Each structure stands twice: as structure tokens, then as C-alpha cells.
Amino acid sequence: MRDLPIGLPKLLVCTLASGDVRAYVGSSDIAMLYPVVDVSGLNRISRQVLANAAHAERLNRMQGPVRFLIPAGGVSALDAPGQPFWWPQADQALFDAISQYTETSPQRQIVYVPAHINEPRIIAQVVDAVRSVL
Q1: Is-above-0.85 flag for pTM?
Q2: CA separation (Å) from 90 to 14, 45, 63, 85, 101?
Q3: Residue 8 contacts by C-beta under 8 Å, 6 or more apart in sequence?
Q4: How big is the CA angle at 14 (ends 50 and 126), to the nearest 5 degrees?
Q5: In degrees to the nearest 10, what's the CA dihedral of 16, 100, 131, 73?
Q6: Which helix (DSSP H) or strand (DSSP E) does residue 84 occupy?
Q7: Are 107 and 66 a contacting pair, CB within 8 Å?
Q8: Strand, coil or helix: 9
Q9: CA–CA separation, 1 vs 3, rounded Å?
Q10: What count of Cα atoms within 13 Å lies in the side-chain half-sphere of residue 4?
Q11: What span, in angstroms and rounded, lies between the C-alpha atoms of 86 and 77?
Q12: pLDDT tens, position by position, for the chain (134 residues)?
């Protein structure tokens, strides 16, 4: 994210955002948002939280160019092969709901990245997506 132009709003959704994030973002223009739940399995709370996110109502109201990147290889550090929250079926359920409720268009696109969220390929895709709308 630091490779993106200064002043371009950057939002990182991460469970680390529940604490002091100065060590991660410092005085940069990166904002971190706590997602309320980590995908450690589906339960009544996580189902509601993920469903609310997947309905993408605000995303659908955006008129400008939007790129919604989905890290198909896992959505958190704990959601990786061999890790305690690795559950590809839950990830796929989230991705399917996002696809179902997001109205895509040339301006509003969902981009599936075949990588884990912590892989460098994700950053390259984010940079490419941002550059494509500037």
C-alpha cells in the first residue's frame, strides 16, 4: 500500500485493527478497520456480519470506478493451509455471497486474486487495480 500515491485513501480490513496499529501504519494515509469477527467458522454472529458485508449496498451505490479484490487463497493469517482457521468452504460461501449481491459493471468490478491475502501478489494486484482507475 505504501507504493500507492500519497493522498489516495487506503483502507485495510484486518483483525489487528482492534489494537494499537501505529507500528503498522505510522503517520501514513492508511486506515485500518476492524472486521468484528475472524472467519473461524460460521456461527450466527459471523453469518450476520459476513452477510451484511456481502450485501454490498454501499458498494452498489458507488458511481465511480470500484475494484473489489477477493483474495481467493485465504482472507487472514490464520486462514491458510495448516492454520487453525483454514476453511476454504467458508471463504467460498463469503465470496459467493459477495458475487451474488454485488452489481458489477465496467465501473464496478470484482477481481478474484488466486493468492492468500498475505502474499506479495495481492499487493501487486491492488496497485494494478488502483492504477487502472486513476
Answers
A1: no
A2: 17, 14, 30, 10, 17
A3: 29, 130
A4: 95
A5: 50
A6: none
A7: yes
A8: coil
A9: 5
A10: 21
A11: 9
A12: 667 676 666 766 666 666 676 776 666 667 766 666 665 667 777 777 666 666 666 777 778 888 889 999 998 888 899 988 888 988 888 888 888 888 899 988 999 999 998 898 888 998 899 888 88
| Cα dihedral value 70, 125, 76, 22, nearest 10 | -130
Taking the alpha carbons at both ends of the chain, their separation in whole angstroms is 15
What single letter denotes the amino acid at residue 13?
V
Bridge pairing between strands 108-113 and 66-71:
parallel
Angstrom CA distances, 83 to 66, 74, 86, 92, 99, stand at 32, 11, 6, 17, 26
